[in-house]
Amino acid sequence: MVGFRESPNPQFGKIDPDLTKSESGIFFQTVHPLVNLDNLFSICQNVKEFVFPAYNRDFMYHKGDRVSDSGITYESLIADNHFALTEVTAWKVITYQNMFSDYLRVLRDDAIHKIFARVVEAKKLRTEIKDVFENIDLYQGIGRADDVIVKSGRFVFYEFYVKAPSHLSVMISSVTTQFNTAQGPLDIYVYRDGNYEPKIIPVELSKAMSIEKTTISITLQAGFNYVGYYEDDLVGQALRKKDYYWNSPPCSSCNTYNTMSYSKWSQYTVIRPGYVLAENLPGDFTLWDLHKNVYEANNNWGLNFGITVGCDITDFIITNRDMFAHPLSIQLGLDVLYEIAFSVRNNYISTETKKYAMYALDNTNNSAIGRIDNNSLMAQLERAIKAMDFDLSGFSECMPCYQVKGIKYSAI
Predict the structure, then answer these.
(1) Residues 6+ away with beta carbon under 8 Å from 398
(2) Exposed, middle or buried by CB within 10 Å (0-12, 13-18, 19+), for 113?
(3) Is residue 404, in this structure, part of any structural domain at all?
(4) Is residue 212 part of a domain?
(5) Which of 106, 279, 280, 297 has the lowest tally of Cβ within 10 angstroms?
């Protein structure tokens, strides 16, 4: 949304082109005269003195590793890089301008994080942002010791159809297992419709017969998700929780917790236990033909999951990103002024420039009476944050409308 203008000095060199883009038309240099590339280069670490390890042809390099050879710096473009420096698909030359561009990215990204933190913190202090609910087990109860699910080489799963809107995230935050034998390691597989490669969550299980709860973290995508295990991985057998039927709401008079839990998670996801026969499973553990699914309404495969539904305003922020451009530019301007005023590096910032930066950071124009300078960058940032806070209110239960609390006075 906000970019850096190139220096008009042709001797300065070019910064990376991604930093010069500005969708909003706002540039960081417009915030304050001291925010310019010359000053930024002066307060930056002296990249011309950076020394990287010498290139070793017998060493395997990671992506992003930097090496030097004959006074030239190179960066690895790939993982497991054992190629010669002349291989342009494996290495790129890094200039001083590239390293300075890295510094500008750090400045920009720090400013972005500070802006988001300010807005979120302000709302949390007013208790407006909160999770919808956290780590609620799908049901309460355990399987019977005499009700063993005989394994037969299947993949057994819970199908989660997530119907939550984009500003909410649905997560599996724990898995509770019940097997008749101490299992040891067990891989929980997560498949998503349209993605053939699974995500694998290893859990370590040590209990026999009793339930065992393990904290995990699986973000479910909108649409169909399949979470379960391969029966061939089991040491023993799973115990069935038989009197819970997934195709209808639980009996309200039988178990209060199950009724409460179902009323919460069923707003955001539909759950069906099922399995895939061994002969219908690919040999490489990729996603199978979903038409081969077989569903059982009264099975749990010895599994229970904890569900957390929280706020995720990513899509809203991306759609309304223009509102962040102005406060972002001010935040970076303030950060740069602090760097100039209080930098202890041996750089080329003059004493006069440091004084100007300190004056610009002073939030009062009359220290004797403490009068606030409404045109200072700090005051501008406060107004921008308040305006953005108002703009972010009321679009969902994650960020409800801003409410002014306290006593109101009026004439009668």
Answers:
(1) 129, 167, 168, 311, 312, 313
(2) exposed
(3) no
(4) yes
(5) 279
Cα distance from N-terminal residue to C-terminal residue, the chain: 48
Handedness of CA 105, 111, 113, 116 (dihedral sign): negative
Query: Is residue 14 included in any domain, yes or no?
Result: no
* Structural domains of the chain, count: 1
The rounded distance, in Å, linking the Cα atoms of 195 and 169 is 19
Q: What is the pTM assigned to this prediction?
A: 0.60
Q: In this predicted model, what pLDDT tens digit does every residue of 166-222 receive, in sequence order?
A: 678 899 999 999 999 999 999 999 999 888 999 999 999 999 999 999 999 999 998
CB 274 within 8 A of CB 151: no
Share of the chain above pLDDT 70, in %: 86
Dihedral sign, Cα of residue 149, residue 154, residue 155, residue 159: negative
Residue 333: is it exposed, middle or buried by C-beta count within 10 angstroms (0-12/13-18/19+)?
buried
Q: Compute the distance between CA of residue 117 and CA of residue 147 in angstroms, rounded to an integer.
A: 51
Alpha carbons 404 and 234: distance in angstroms, whole number: 57
Cβ atoms within 10 A of the Cβ of 368, count? Answer: 6
* Residue 92: φ, ψ to 5°: -130, 150
Bin 71: left if φ > 0, else alpha if -120 < ψ < 50, else beta. Answer: left
Domain range spanning residue 141? 133-314
Quick: pLDDT tens for 37-92: 988 888 887 777 788 999 998 999 999 999 999 889 999 999 999 999 999 999 99
**Is residue 159, in this structure, part of any structural domain at all?**
yes
